[in-house]
Design brief:
Structural class: alpha/beta
CATH superfamily of the largest domain: ABC transporter type 1, transmembrane domain
Number of strands: 10
Radius of gyration: 36 Å
Largest sheet: 6 strands, mixed
CATH class of the largest domain: Mainly Alpha
CATH topology of the largest domain: ABC transporter transmembrane region fold
Length: 587
């Protein structure tokens, strides 16, 4: 219940709609409960005495009550829908906003498919709980209390049937709810699994088709879909038991009341109209118990969904701006002072260890290293996408943890290893770098990134629609657009994480020439090709998360065996330097 209480804070302006809905249900219930009283008078007085005017009078009263109950019910539906869907929209917005504040380490704790489910299916469960549960939640206790009170007032002896039957129904429904409650959490996790397979398949559909893995993906989907099916069947197999339990107790009660009431009528202790009215209260009391059981089923499912949503909302971002942040980055210098890093506190080994590196403002630095040497991890510490586990990372001579996050990240432009474009036009994607950038500035950035070569051939130029994820451009074109986007930001530090791997060497050379003309900007280039970094001011070689060597191209070529091997394999085919390392000699 704590989770639901937490989420009800997001009702905001829709709190009034929920209150009005509850009030209208209460009024509707009162109108419906008055009708059996009029019905009893109609039969016992009007029909028994043949008084047609009295029958018509009571009939009109019943019709008015029924009409008013209908109107209040329709008004309730309007207010309940506004409350439910308005609340759901605010909760989804709060979740999405919270996810935007997450650091990478927070996102590592949630699967993407699970976050999608929590913002869609789980919120829909809450909306349905309000839309379909508010009415019985208010109506059932009122009907139960008033129905029992009026039935005891009408005939205490017959009302004793409730004393026997109602607890039996209550115990059965309690057992059903207790059994079903934990199953709803498993049901939502099964939904996560299904969404995960669908998302992976649709994202990588081209790879699936290229490797002819359609049948394999169908088998994966069939498996998770079957798991969701079996979980749903097990859950609702028990959930629907409340209906037969209700019918069993209700019809048993009716039989007992007819049997006892018939005897009382024969003995002159009960009128037919009273028995008819009493049966109306029987149905209302039993229906109220049934509705209460449905409310509990809705509540148990909504509690499972509410807990999953609250997990997202209460996840504290591991990175945040300090209380009194630095709001200006002086220059593009970068210093790593005794930096070590691991992705999880419980990890046995560090991804980066004892990194000591100093980059002056305006320098161009190349970073080389094998796969898994933590090149990307190193540069992600600069804009504080992660925090160092040990040591200090400084930008402009200031610890990155002392900056306002927005200020720091505005000063650092990074082209990630995985290039991401969004649905929309080329212009809309490039303006992520600068919302105020005009066409002249955009084309200048495109020329520097050599993106103008293909954009000028497109009929709509900057207004060309890229499609979802940039599917309308090739990998190399996507990389060049991402580089142009980064240049538009006009940062103090520019990081390229293997961002020219999909372009040809001639185009890469043009991009390097354009980047060399950028003065006052610190450039850090992660690359696999030695030609990408050989003309930089400093080359850093990473090995197993540690700095193996650092120096200029000529220095490393003279002294470092790893750099010699890389150079030989890429530039000279292994003839001059290829056998100077132990690994090469063994080969």
């Amino acid at each position: 219940m704590r989770d639901l209480k937490c989420l009800f804070r997001y009702l905001g302006p829709y709190r009034r709609d929920m209150f009005m809905g509850a009030l209208l249900v209460l009024i509707e219930t009162v109108f419906e409960l008055v009708i059996p009283v009029f019905m009893a008078d109609l039969i016992d007085v009007g029909v028994a005495n043949g008084d047609v005017p009295y029958i018509l009078y009571k009939g009109v009263q019943m019709a008015v009550c029924a009409g008013l109950a209908l109107i209040t019910g329709l008004l309730y539906a309007r207010f309940a829908a506004r409350a439910a869907y308005g609340w759901g929209a605010r909760v989804r917005e709060a979740e999405f906003e919270r996810v935007q504040s997450y650091a990478f380490s927070n996102l590592d704790r949630f699967e993407t498919s699970s976050l999608v489910t929590r913002m869609t299916t789980d919120v829909t469960v809450l909306q349905n709980a309000v839309n379909g549960g508010l009415r019985p939640l208010v109506r059932s206790p009122v009907m139960l209390a008033m129905g029992l009170g009026l039935s005891f007032r009408m005939n205490p002896q017959l009302a004793l049937v409730f004393v026997v039957c109602a607890p039996v129904l209550g115990v059965i429904l309690f057992l059903v709810v207790r059994k079903v409650a934990p199953m709803y959490s498993r049901l939502q996790k099964a939904m996560d699994g299904l969404n995960n397979v669908v998302q992976e398949n649709l994202t990588a559909i081209r790879a699936v088709k290229a490797f002819v893995r359609g049948e394999y993906e169908e088998d994966k989907f069939r498996e998770v879909n079957g798991e969701l099916l079996s979980t749903s069947q097990r859950t609702f197999h028990f959930a629907v038991l409340n209906l037969p339990a209700f019918q069993l107790v209700m019809y048993t009660s009716i039989v007992l009341i007819f049997w006892l009431g018939g005897q009382m009528i024969l003995q002159g202790e009960l009128l037919v109209g009273e028995l008819t009215g009493f049966l109306s209260y029987v149905l209302q009391v039993m229906n109220s118990l049934m509705m209460i059981s449905n409310v509990f089923l809705l509540l148990t499912r909504s509690l499972a969904s509410a807990h999953r949503i609250v997990e997202v909302l209460e996840e504290e971002p591991t990175l945040a701006s300090p209380a009194d942040p630095v709001t200006e980055v002086a220059d593009g210098s970068v210093d790593f002072e005794g930096v070590s890093f691991k992705y999880h506190a419980g990890a046995k080994e560090y991804a980066l260890a004892d990194v000591e590196l100093h980059i002056k403002a305006g320098q161009t630095v190349g970073i080389l290293g094998g796969t898994g040497s933590a090149k990307t991890t190193l540069v992600q510490l600069i804009p504080r996408l992660y925090d160092a586990s040990e040591g200090v990372v400084k930008v402009g001579g200031v610890d990155v943890r002392d900056y306002d996050l927005t200020v720091l990240r505005d000063a650092v432009s990074i082209v990630l290893q995985k290039n991401e474009l969004f649905s929309g036009t080329v212009r809309e994607n490039l303006q992520w770098g600068s919302q105020e950038a005009n066409d002249e500035e955009i084309w200048a950035a495109c020329r520097a990134a050599c993106a103008d070569e293909f954009l000028e051939r497109m009929p709509k130029g900057l207004d060309t629609d890229l499609g979802q994820g940039g599917v309308n451009v090739s990998g190399g074109q996507k990389q060049r657009l991402c580089i142009a986007r980064a240049l538009l930001k006009k940062p103090k530090i520019l990081i390229f994480d293997d961002s020219t791997s999909a372009v040809d060497t001639a185009t890469e050379a043009k991009i390097r020439t354009a980047l060399a003309s950028l003065t006052g900007v610190t450039k850090i280039i992660i690359a696999q090709r030695i030609t990408s970094v050989m003309n930089t001011d400093l080359i850093v070689i990473l090995e197993d998360g540690r700095i193996h060597a650092a120096g200029t191209h000529s220095q490393l070529l003279d002294s470092d065996p790893i750099y010699q091997e890389i150079y030989a394999s890429q530039m000279k085919g292994g003839e001059e330097y290829g056998c100077q390392t132990a690994q090469c000699q063994k080969a």
